[in-house]
Design a protein that fits this description.
This protein is of the alpha+beta class. It has one domain. β2 and β3 form a beta hairpin. The longest helix is centred in the N-terminal third of the chain and has 20 residues.
Length: about 230
């Protein structure tokens, strides 16, 4: 085995490792920029209300057909370090027909007002997943996004969203430096979702906590089990 072949093999392995580290989803592929431009020209964006620059597009397939998840970020601001920041984000979920796209889901959010001092909002793609969580043949996308404020993510927000049967369930967490600043709000309907979906969200919360991206109330597992819609310290 010559050295050139070894270097190429190492480079391919390195790229694959980076991709898996960024996105844990195993059922979805990330479209190249050329594919995105071809599938979503200006006319298609205008038709479906895609107003912000496309950050990433996922393609995935289940028993209902092929789908696209389009993540967009406004890139219309600067944070306190002078880096590009976002005031708003939008995500779009499409069913892909042979000649047209049908939108079957959309979510949007923005930084809060001046009192919160939030500086930017963006998608946390490391925690995105596209799996059939309840084994009904249909993918249940999980998307995560968050915000930063004067202390970065330490006093920003984290939002976890899962779509199941065209319904979005949200877990909204306010991070904070002090214990009494942190709280989590759960959509009441989330507890009606299949247990497997609730367990998947529990795993996402654990992953975010392990990465020290947020501190959830210390008793959140008990609160989840008790089906509480507000978690506090």
């Amino acid at each position: 085995m010559n050295i050139r072949y070894i270097l190429i093999l190492y480079a391919l392995l390195w790229c694959a490792t980076r991709t898996l580290a960024q996105d844990k989803s195993v059922r979805a592929s990330v479209l190249a920029s050329e594919e995105v431009e071809k599938l979503f020209p200006s006319s298609v964006k205008a038709e479906h209300g895609i107003r912000f620059p496309v950050f990433r597009v996922y393609s995935y397939v289940d028993e209902s057909g092929k789908h696209f998840c389009v993540l967009t970020e406004s890139k219309d601001a600067q944070d306190s370090n002078g880096d590009v920041a976002n005031n708003k984000i939008q995500a779009f979920l499409f069913n892909a027909g042979e000649v047209f796209l049908k939108k079957n889901g959309e979510l949007s959010d923005q930084i809060l007002g001046n009192e919160s001092e939030e500086e930017s909002i963006w998608f946390w793609t490391k925690y995105a997943s596209f799996d059939d969580l309840d084994k009904d043949g249909i993918i249940d996308p999980i998307l995560v996004y968050g915000t930063s404020a004067l202390n970065g993510t330490d006093d920003g927000r984290v939002i976890i969203t899962v779509q199941h049967k065209d319904v979005f369930y949200h877990i909204r967490h306010q991070n904070g430096i002090l214990d009494d600043e942190r709280h989590t709000n759960i959509d009441p309907a989330f507890y009606d979702a299949p247990k497997s979906i609730q367990e998947a969200i529990k795993g996402t919360i654990v992953a975010i906590s392990n990465d020290e991206k947020a501190i959830f109330p210390y008793n959140w597992k008990e609160a989840l089990k008790a089906k509480k819609t507000v978690w506090r310290e």
